[in-house]
Fold this protein.
Amino acid sequence: MTPLIVAIWVAGAVQLAIAAANLEVARKLDYRANLARLTPIVAQVFLAHAVYIVLVMIWFSSICLVFARELASGDPLARFLTGGLAAFWGLRAIIQLTFYDRQVRKDHRLEDVAFLAACALLTGIFLTAVLH
């Protein structure tokens, strides 16, 4: 077992934690009350997208936990997948820094910093796998 395999397992666990944290995010941001103000179709699309993203994160996590050795192999498919994961998490951090409401980020500074740190960790692990 190499350090990269262990790092990919850690990435799997972090992604699973992020997926689980989305339940708390929904509560903290009061999705229920905010969605009630939208037209039904907009609320439905938002909820479908939110659930879909959580399922994608669980899928990413599963790939890392089950196929860590393969992802660390340096094979072309492994590099493609880990490159995509690095891009996904790197872009997610950029979106948080440039698009999300600054006051909300300030009001929830601990969560903001923790999520940015998680994105940086995930991006770093997957970039390491790409370059391995």
